[in-house]
Amino acid sequence: MTRLDLTGLETRPAQVWGGVRVVPLVRAEPMPGLRLHAEIYAGLGAVAVGKGVEYLAYVPHGFVADWAGEEPDPGPDGGPGGGQDNGRGEGHGNGRRAQQRASYGTQLGDARPDAMAVHHHHRMVKRRRPGKGLSGGAATTRCRFLPLHLALEGYLSLHFGGPSVAWEEWSRQAVRQGFSPREEEAYLGLDVRGLADALRVFEIHPGQCGVLVYTADSLAAAFVVPHPDDYRALHPSLLQDLYGELVHQYAFFGGPVADFEARIPDRYVTTLADLRARAVAQERLWDETHRTVLARELLTESYAFERVYRMGSYELHRFLPPFSRGRQEQHIGELITDHKGRTAYLKTFRLSDAQVRRGHLLNVLADHDWRVAGAAEALGTTYEELVRRIKAAGFGPLLNEHVVARRIAETK
Q1: What is the DSSP secondary-structure string of 315-355?
Q2: Rounded CA gap, 85 and 90, in Å?
Q3: How far apart are CA 288 and CA 303, in angstroms?
């Protein structure tokens, strides 16, 4: 598997709100035996991803995948998945605690929280054991994962260990600690201009299981779930997701986009059957145009997939792009596929040009065993110019300045 497969998903005509274009994705039949539901967290999360390594980010919710073929149990507050993860993979929940989480920041009286608590998670993907709030089912039929953060952690961990060879150019910190800490910035969906209004105003189609969101007609995010009921429940979560800098800029500075209107000449229509046939032809034309034009970069790219969890006949993967400098769009993401490779769940994050350059630079350095001279030769540039790129990418503190300055002087 090297590409995304959206077999079974059909596009419906786009809906436009200012500079935001939303393209619904529908299924004729839901994916069998797999359901998703969300559980709400306090917001700020710390995830243990390795020995002495933590991932810190705004984590408003997690997704619980249930592949037992059962409906997700309602939580104590009437919503799905009232159980909470106690860090040991055990679900627990009571009505009072669930209501406190739902009403965070809206309590009566003058009392206000001095600080937001940090929710500690054990691993990005965690097997779920049955417990209060998660009744029935064997332990192996549910798992909790942190949507989008699973993909972002994969990007941040790219060559995280640092130089594999202790060349003189790299500092002791780079050799001993690698690229720790690594950080990237993102914007909350609520801060993407027009997105909240678009998601509030646009209709949800019968059978809708996903959506593609565009800002200034550039793909911002893809979101797919296995069942229409899952999408209706998780539709608001798009405002809590993270979006890249480029997406935010396009939405803020871009003007309104044109709406694609279907025009059927009346001279070809004499009966209701003719009108229906012409309307179906227009829908097919829109679907083909969307896949070959608007979504082409996402669907034709070759990705590096990493399987992170097996769910019966389904598999959870995260993926990275090739970080090619010539491509207009580069997305990271995560997906769940069935045994035929069809997409049951998908969530993507659009990288900025600077993030693509950092990924490309790290790949080239790693491919040449972190030898700066060899990487410069492969890039067709000079030693001095590559050092400048490393510093511009934010990795300058990992260089040994004295050695680098001496090598630059030797090459002149």
Answers
A1: EEEEEE----TT-S--EEEEEEE-TT--EEEEEEEEPPHHH
A2: 6
A3: 22
User: What mean pLDDT, rounded, does the chain reach?
Assistant: 84
Q: Is the peptide bond before 181 cis (omega within 30 degrees of 0)?
A: yes
Which DSSP category does 162 fall into? -
CA distance 98 to 76: 7
One-letter amino acid at 82 equals G
Q: Which DSSP category does 211 fall into?
A: E
CA 292 to each of CA 11, 285, 300: distance values in angstroms, whole numbers, following the listed order: 12, 11, 9
| Residue 278 backbone dihedrals phi, psi, to 5 degrees | -65, -40
Round to whole Å and give the CA distance between 28 and 36.
Answer: 18
* Separation between Cα atoms, residue 278 and residue 271, nearest integer Å: 11
CA 394 to chain centre: 23
pLDDT in tens, 112-159: 555 667 888 989 999 987 654 444 444 468 999 999 999 999 999 999
Read off the pTM.
0.83
CA distances from 278 to 127, 262, 263, 273 (A): 50, 10, 10, 9
Percent of the chain surpassing pLDDT 70? 86
- Distance separating alpha carbons of residues 341 and 359, to the nearest angstrom: 27
Which residues, in sequence order, are CB contacts of 320 under 8 Å at separation 6+?
Answer: 154, 155, 158, 303, 304, 306, 332, 359
- How is residue 411 written in tokens? 């090459």
DSSP state of 108: S
DSSP 234: H
- DSSP conformation letters of 171-207: -HHHHHH-S-S-----EEGGGSTTHHHHHHHSPPPTT
Q: At what angle do helices 401-411 and 383-392 cross, to 10 degrees?
A: 150
